[in-house]
Specification:
This protein is an alpha/beta fold and 403 residues long. It contains twelve helices and 18 strands. It starts with 6 loop residues before the first helix and ends in a 7-residue tail after the last helix. Bound molecules: pyridoxal-5'-phosphate (PLP). The site of pyridoxal-5'-phosphate has 18 residues, from helix 10.
Length: 403
């Protein structure tokens, strides 16, 4: 298996492991991680936002690269521990969770970002100043690719609004809580570096109010390219601007604040390929439909938030180009792409969807009682099966037959 996964290699993997199939290229994850560390240097810490892709082998691989991990649920925290991350490398950025999960996170010894006044109060009451904690704030900034993936604006559910800093300080003072980290995560697919700078400016206004700060966590949301000529977040520019903002801020001066980020998509989007097989070609007066053996049960992003995935016919790379609409086989509208130019498609051909690593398998389901796909990791010239395709028993697992 060569370093770079080519259409020919992907086609071979589809034949070997069957379809639908997710394939991940370990090297690409490493390349992405190195882009971040080489731009920011060793004093910036990157927590992989693992909700993008939690296969245990991916978690172990990312740990081996030296990254830390950001979790969105207590089960992700447990998976991270299982993958060998030590608690001090695990961040639990909570959102709307019950206090009992914060208690569990505390008992597991991981880093916690609290996102509501209610949980902050409960945390203070129970732990006082015995366990430093971070605050997830809502900076009231519009950012990200579209409203569905924007999380920092003034109508977003995420974080404690910065305009409630007065109330935060009351709770912090009342229980002598040690706030060591301020966090924001404003959205996904942010290309405009100035969004991060705006976030920093909002945080720096309140930095002087928190005496025990050690970290400023700027969240994730770096954009990757989806098609030829597409933009991506300019990481070296971002690094230069962020460092400059920290160096020039009077409120950060002398505080020695460490910068944290939580990239999800940036690390794993491009490493992933989703391979399907064409079941049916249907000619209609307006459209030629290509129905593949998948649907939004396996890759929901196009239907969920209009995401674009480049598609290629890897079985007929030299075929004449024609325009198709690529759809799935489930009983709901599950269009992957309208009016897409592909090399001539025939029934039985393999189509690959690019940028399928992040929020691909992770958001898959058994809708229509179809099996979840298998997953393969390509690493060190080897293709390793890292998840079996579902079998019929999986559909009945956990069901209790009472009739
Ligand atoms: C989802 C999420 C991220 C990662 O976002 P990407 O767009 O995948 O980089 C980072 N931090 C938090 C708190 C998140 O919820």
């Amino acid at each position: 298996m060569p370093q770079q996964l080519t259409p020919t290699n992907l086609n071979q993997l589809a034949k070997e492991f069957g379809t639908p199939l997710y394939v991940y290229d370990a090297d690409k994850i490493k390349v992405q991680y190195r882009k971040l560390t080489s731009a920011f240097g060793l004093d910036t810490v990157f927590f992989y936002a693992c909700k993008a892709l939690t296969n245990i082998n991916i978690l172990k691989y990312i740990r081996s690269l030296g990254a830390n991990i950001d979790c969105s649920s207590i089960n992700e925290v447990r998976l991270a521990l299982y993958a060998g991350f030590t608690p001090n490398r695990i961040l639990y950025t909570s959102n709307g969770i019950s206090f009992s999960e914060i208690e569990e996170a505390h008992d597991l010894g991981v880093i916690i970002n609290i996102d509501s006044l209610s949980n902050l109060e409960k945390f203070g009451m129970k732990y006082g100043h015995s366990y430093p904690v971070g605050l997830r704030l809502r900076p009231n900034i519009m950012a990200g690719g579209n409203l569905k993936i924007s999380t920092g604006h003034d109508k977003s559910k995420f974080g404690i609004p910065v305009d409630q800093t007065g109330q935060i300080l009351e709770v912090v003072d009342k229980y002598h809580i040690l706030v060591n980290d301020l966090h924001i995560h404003t959205g996904s697919e942010i290309t405009d570096v100035s969004v991060f700078l705006k976030g920093i400016a909002v945080l720096f206004e309140i930095v002087p109010l928190f005496k025990h700060l050690k970290f400023i966590d700027l969240g994730g949301g770096f954009k990757v390219p989806y098609k030829e000529g597409d933009t991506e977040t300019d990481i070296p520019l971002l690094a230069a601007k962020v460092k400059e903002a920290f160096a020039n801020s009077p409120s950060a001066a002398g505080r020695n604040l460490q910068i944290w980020f939580e990239p999800g998509k940036f690390l794993v989007s491009e490493c992933g390929y989703f391979i399907t097989e064409v079941n049916v070609i249907k000619e209609t007066s307006s459209t030629t439909f290509v129905s593949v053996n998948s649907g939004f049960n396996h890759l929901i992003r196009p239907m969920f938030y209009d995401s674009y995935h480049r598609i290629e016919n890897i079985s007929n790379p030299d075929g004449a180009e024609k325009v198709y609409s690529v759809v799935g086989n489930i009983c709901e509208t599950d269009t992957f792409a309208w009016n897409r130019k592909l090399h001539q498609v025939r029934e039985g051909d393999h189509l690959v969807f690019y940028n399928a690593g992040a929020y691909g398998f992770e958001m898959s389901s058994n809708f229509n009682s179809r099996y979840k796909p298998a997953e393969v990791l390509v690493k060190d010239y080897q293709a390793l099966l890292i998840r079996k395709r579902d079998v019929f028993e999986d559909l009945l697992r956990n069901q209790i037959e009472v009739l």
